[in-house]
């Protein structure tokens, strides 16, 4: 192959082949780079989706935990409400009973007080004589729902000394007693 034209043609052919190969390799490289970039983007998107799925799974698990906690809390609140309602009803019943007892005691005290006042009124209204040495009298008293009867005696011990004693019975089944002495000069 000593012919220069053949050598030039051969070189052109080789150069064209090389250029074609380089062009093909560049296209392949460009295609490969584009595919690699697209593949990286898809992998990144898949990873993001996987991360998002994982986060969603975690959120779902947390939501499930929250839902379970809410159900447990709701159940416990229901149990607490039932317990509180029972306790409240028990306390209300006990309080009503205690107020009823207190009301009865107040009424008893009121009845006894009224009867005591009636006894004092009966004892203070016993009339005594002034002329004799000894005198006996009876008195009655009434105050609201209390009533009483009383009896008393008075004695003139000397010209200047008098003594007196009385007792009263009332409708509260109580007895009142009283005594006194008077000195004149």
TrEMBL record:
Primary residence: membrane
Domain Trimeric autotransporter adhesin YadA-like C-terminal membrane anchor as annotated: residue spans: 130-185
Keywords noted in UniProt: Cell outer membrane, Membrane, Signal, Transmembrane, Transmembrane beta strand
Subcellular location: Cell outer membrane; Cell surface
Domain of life: Bacteria
Stored InterPro entries: Pilin-like, YadA_C
GO cellular component: a single term: cell outer membrane
Protein name: YadA-like family protein
Organism: Xenorhabdus szentirmaii
């Amino acid at each position: 192959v000593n012919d220069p034209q053949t050598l030039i043609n051969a070189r052109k052919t080789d150069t064209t082949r090389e250029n074609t190969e380089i062009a093909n390799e560049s296209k392949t490289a460009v295609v490969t780079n584009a595919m690699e970039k697209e593949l990286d983007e898809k992998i990144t998107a898949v990873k993001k989706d996987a991360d998002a799925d994982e986060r969603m799974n975690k959120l779902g698990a947390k939501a499930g935990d929250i839902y379970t906690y809410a159900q447990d809390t709701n159940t416990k609140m229901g149990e607490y409400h039932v317990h509180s309602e029972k306790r409240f009803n028990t306390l209300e019943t006990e309080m009503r009973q205690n107020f009823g007892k207190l009301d009865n005691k107040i009424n008893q005290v009121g009845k006894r007080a009224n009867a005591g006042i009636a006894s004092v009124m009966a004892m203070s209204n016993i009339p005594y004589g002034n002329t004799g040495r000894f005198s006996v009298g009876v008195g009655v008293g009434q105050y609201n729902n209390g009533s009483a009867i009383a009896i008393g005696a008075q004695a003139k011990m000397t010209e200047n000394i008098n003594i007196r004693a009385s007792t009263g019975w009332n409708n509260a089944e109580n007895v009142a007693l009283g005594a006194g002495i008077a000195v004149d000069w």
